[in-house]
Amino acid sequence: MTPVLSAFTTRTTVEIRAVCLDIDDTLIDYDGSARTALTALVGHDEAWPAWQRTTDEHVARAISGEFDYDTMRWRRTKAFFAVLGEHLDDAEVRRREDSRLAVMERSWRVFDDTMPLLDWLRASGIKVAAVTNASGSRQRAKIAAVGLSEFFDHVVIAGELGVAKPDPVIFHTACLDLDVLPAETVHVGDRLDLDAIGARDAGMHGVWLNRDGLDPQLAPAGVWTINSLAELPELVVCELSTPGLDAL
Length: 248
What we know:
The protein contains 10 helices and 7 strands. The chain has 2 domains: 2-29 and 109-247, Rossmann fold (3-Layer(aba) Sandwich), CATH 3.40.50.1000; 30-107, Orthogonal Bundle (DNA polymerase, domain 1), CATH 1.10.150. It is an alpha/beta fold. 47% of the residues lie in helices and 12% in strands. It is an enzyme of class 3 (hydrolase).
């Protein structure tokens, strides 16, 4: 793990009482299942960047309340195929999207380091929340389907709250739900901007899960970097046991 210490040199360490966790591509291999489903739909993997761009745009619109999740899926898929040069009628859009979704749901899996971390957090008595930029009931169904529901004291979903990461409101909502202060809380996610920096700016300990092995120097001051969830217990324990850094 690569901690950036400068943000911690002027304040006393406080007890870490809670950990917030992103879901997709942090605990669950969302991109892997989504790529498998897209390949099954279009026959190749080359369209993945276009799918990601179209998805990000439409999910943001769904979270803002412009339309519900199912409408988002259909509009996203229609827009995606238009980018590929196919202009589909609504019935064909729904048929293809339902087929893609069925493949994706069969492909969901948790990362190998997910369950050991959750077992450790539960054994340690640390409160745990999921904080996810998803859009509602399907995210809860996914969490349940892969056996994660029992590990969370609260689940905070952008599509239900109407506010998404990196807005401080979603992080502060999780802290209120857990009855902890932001300074007592770690948030971990695979997105440097939305998760780690967003959490840091909300007064939490922001941790970037750098699964792709990107340059750790991309992380700004006040953000911690780990390459695996297996590194988080050591980070939390060190934060708990290290004397106040203002004395250094």
